[in-house]
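Lecture notes, unit on binding sites. The following record was shown on slide 14. It pairs a sequence with iron/sulfur cluster.
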Amino acid sequence: MTEKTILFRDERNAAPAIPRVLETPTGLLGDALARPLHDLRISVTDRCNFRCVYCMPKEVFDKDYAYLPQTSLLSFEEITRIARLFVAHGVEKLRLTGGEPLLRKNLERLIGMLAELRTPGGKPLDLTLTTNGSLLAKKAQSLKDAGLNRVTVSLDSLDDATFKRMNDVDFAVADVLAGLEAAHKAGLGPIKVNMVVKGGMNDQEIVPMARHFKGSPYVLRFIEYMDVGASNGWNMREVVPSEEVVRRISAEMPLLPIGANYTGETAARWRYADGSGEIGMISSVTQAFCHDCSRARLSTEGKLYTCLFATRGSDLRALLREGRSDAEMSTAIAHIWRARTDRYSETRTINTDGLVLGGPKVEMSYIGG
Ligand code: SAM
Ligand code: SF4
Ligand code: SF4
């Protein structure tokens, strides 16, 4: 096994213990810091057709990289069963991610299955997906028809040379913009556009991006470059704080802060003083939002992670494939969430090497962004 494989998958992740006393979900699960469980992110593939320098750098994710074999992936039936258990525990929002989720074959079938789930109160879920947009022009309508509510599209620059340097596979901006338009036409809104800002690489694109999306149907959100995974060579000097992003945009297009839509919202919202829409700031590094983080993550092979920066997950697939009952699985999930104390971003130091972790962090393409 190469070192690259060790960085990616942690084989020590065990199946969670099943407590002897089984419990019925109440829909009101709280973790050790009283944070509810509202949001489940499901990674449907660890593969991607981009090699974004901050996520899947080419030097690591090369042709010899050991991606998960097909048999390791959760089937659509397995994903839906796990999602149903989480919904009974209070999850109201499902986000499909990856890797690039649109690369997973027949994804529409999974969307159709998830769209049928209902909260204990009988409400449909908020079913959404994050994509690099490369296949969106082709797939937007079929995704909508299958039951997807909305999409978030990643786009780091409007300048082709910069965008190509970032996706590292020569993919053109115009194709992502065409995907955005198709998603809008199909009714997959409100659509968010995520821009990861990496200092010295695309920060000169902050103002042009704001200008382009101001007054459009799309809500642009700036994401601070994070120290996820173990392969992007993260450095605090390349983080452009959200405060600086707001300052640069405001100098040309004045901004005013607005309140959050709901508790646990990751983006701080700002609106243009002239009334032409809003933008969001995801300040994962400079203003951590762990205090109301209500997100769980399910990896492509069925491991449950309670934090984006986790070093270990709990193997739910093992429980599924051992033939455990819904009651047993549900009880195991409840115990994992109740024990959750994660607040990595709030305890992060300037030099992440200074943090004592239980091993290498899992990659974002595996755990899902
Ligand atoms: N491939 C899809 C995409 O790019 O939208 C979905 C998966 S991607 C891992 C999810 C989100 O994570 C994207 O918006 C991406 O820009 C963001 N992301 C990846 N690596 C990041 C990093 N190091 N810092 C901040 N955001 C990152
Ligand atoms: Fe792929 Fe998304 Fe990661 Fe870029 S950010 S390499 S598109 S998974
Ligand atoms: Fe949530 Fe972990 Fe991110 Fe904090 S660091 S916001 S706990 S995922």
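Take-home: The pocket of iron/sulfur cluster (ligand 3) is lined by residues 288-290, 293, 295, 307-309, 342-345 (CB under 6 Å).
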